[in-house]
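Protein fold
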Amino acid sequence: MNLNIPAALYRQITTHLSTAYPKEAAGLLLGTADGSSWHASRMLPLANKFAQAEQYHRYLITAEDMLEGEDHAASFGLDVVGVFHSHPDSAPEPSAYDCQHALPWYLYLIVSIAAGEPAGARAWQLREDRSDFQEAALVVAPAANA
């Protein structure tokens, strides 16, 4: 299983996440899925709706955000294929909170932001039984026409 992201899109994602530092930030990955490969081609940055005092280690995407994401994706002939969020000054690994709030059919891109700069990223999918995440290969590549 892998998540494919063009380098330019990855830079847009990390810019959105870095701008929110030292708070967590999040958004939706829009694209297509075929079998065990997800292809992100757009992103929808979202405001963190969690309580201000907790945003340094929590993010919240609301049901309304998800509906907006579905509508936005559909306008491009795409689907919401995943969620991205930051872990400020922490490893890009799912937390217990992430596991409790994730859904098995999306991929989750977690980006470590250290001192305001991207410091690594990993992709994950929640197992169907919701017991844990399994890692997906993250492929950041230049655009095909570049």
About this structure: Strands lie at 2-6, 26-34, 37-46, 79-88, 107-114, 117-126, 133-141. The longest strand covers residues 37-46.
